[in-house]
## 1
Amino acid sequence: QPSGPTSGTARSASLFERAQAVTPGGVNSPVRAFNAVGGTPRFIRSARGAWLTDVDGNEYVDLICSWGPMLLGHGHPEVQAAVAAAVARGTSYGTPTEPEVELAEEIVARTPVDRVRFVSSGTEATMSAIRLARGFTGRDVVLKFAGCYHGHVDSLLASAGSGLATFAVPGTPGVPESSTALTLVLPYNDRAAVEKAFAEHGERIACLITEAAPGNMGVVPPEPGFNAFLAETCARHGALFISDEVMTGFRAGRLGQWGLDGAREGWRPDLMTFGKVMGGGFPAAAFGGRADVMSRLAPEGPVYQAGTLSGNPIATTAGLTTLRLATDEVYAHIDAAGETIKAAAAAALSEAGVPHVVQSTGTMFSVFFTDPADGPVRDFADASRTDSIAFAAFFHAMLDRRVYLPPSAYEAWFLSSAHDDRAVQTVLDALPEAAEAAARA
Ligand code: PMP
């Protein structure tokens, strides 16, 4: 059983040095590096339930959960068994298979989409959904919100231009201006900005894409009725409403964020994107939606989209098994563990005098190191007020006490059904001293 401070990081440090020689930044996805918090990322050797074990033998409570997918924790025996059986039958055929039909049926049953197409990453899902929306509408402009991340799609790696409802500038070198010139970036939760964009460009707008509830600037819940307003506004202007549930899907609740608003309010997105949980820890993602829109996809329709490993039998088996095991009890457990951790984090930070704001949507939550006097975090400008120095100190103090948080102040803290009392207690025990460290930073 883990106890006391960690036993050094020599092997992680040495692997990180080797990694940096052969891979930019030593990582295959930027936020895994500790650029935002400083220090050496831990190289994980194995994981079980709620726990990660690094190459030096340190154990950590995992609050990353692979950035969302591991809803049932690591190495769930039924998922492992289903994957092992699938591997024994071969790993990829490049032909249709039964598990992909079953997974598609499961997603269609649990979400408002009529049909889905599988891809291998959330990025591919949003990229393809946008192509389909443009192909379906014959229009070219895309609306997105600042602070919403939809993967590294060229046209979506855009920052806001100089004013509201002006076209965007590339958010990274390597994306030509022509790729973002058709993207409008608006402040989240801002109805007036959406109205203005449609008033000025309505006839050119193919789609509006939004995170169903943003989780990539920390958790910023849509204000009541905001998603319904977006769906209604898009419909009024003949644009498609794309709800990106790559992060929230099958995680914010059993029916994702849509279960928290659309299902109750009686509306549905035209297109949705999914990833993470639906792949059960394997590369699988999907986009889906209205039957008439989806039928425009090749080979039924003219909009081209494809993938060698799309619907891979191992990934779809892992996803299907995960979704079938993701019962109401799983979400209730994650919710309860989250409530306990949220309350303890707020208490510890208050006790230490560290300004903070805790926000959630369904079972997803995050802790902002912002001043509550400034109000809730409603958009990217609010989230940007985060005290990243305080967060870095907090992060490292938690890590030293065996809690591996996402190494960024702008992330949800992910839990799983495997986060039992021992794992939660480890987090609770670490919080007071981590809050003190944040106060000193
Ligand atoms: N959309 C959302 C809402 C996401 O959170 C992410 C990834 N964090 C993506 C899209 C991109 O998914 P992927 O990393 O699988 O390309």
## 2
Amino acid sequence: MTLTNVLEVDGVVKSFGGFKALNGVSLKVSQGEIVGLVGPNGCGKTTLVNVVSGIYSCDGGSVRLGGKDVTHLPAHKRVLFGVNRTFQVPKPFKDMTVQENVELAWNFGGRHGSLRDSVLGTTGLEDLKDRVTSTLNTAQQKRLDLARALATNPQVLFVDELGAGLNPSELSDLAEMLRGISKLNVALIVVEHLMGFLEALTTRVVVLEAGKEIFEGNIKDAIRDKKVVEVFLGG
Ligand code: ADP
């Protein structure tokens, strides 16, 4: 069986001044796959998310979405090619209802795709759709962030530390939700510090250190890998 690569990142370099935050990172992700992106603080995870989603332009390498080269497109255009992300600090419009926020995202995403009608159900927000966003609790706001990203009909969705600050039952709900999203053929790249959460969720993890990939594979092998252990334990 050949799986389609919806995302192909090839040798991406991103510098801030003279400092290379990403130093030749490559990554391929196939349709509906769930990949974990891990590594110590400052290793370049968020920079990679920003470079792929188009928030930052890169200084070398290329980004292809669904086979199309989007390396030089800005973020709002890349959304139309099927990539989106959640934010570590969710930024919905607080005075709008849940449904209005999702509608707005759908408009932003070019008003296409079949996910629109299932977004509230998939993210467990159906019963909260008329609530004003500012009245939601943290876990609900995170679900809304996921719903807004999903409403743009992504093929590739970066989920950036959505697990932080959630209790075990909320975490297990989140994992279930993400599994449901991947079944809709959306590839998920989950940036997360919580290894247990990733172990239950991902088929593959990519470990970054100092802007370079040092491991790619199954999480059980990652936690036995000498280099990965050294990076995480500072050995
Ligand atoms: P992570 O998400 O893995 O914690 P980041 O991608 O946020 O790491 O950061 C990687 C490195 O790039 C860090 O050293 C960080 O200080 C630096 N960096 C990230 N964004 C900027 C920026 N806008 N300007 C300057 N340096 C940055």
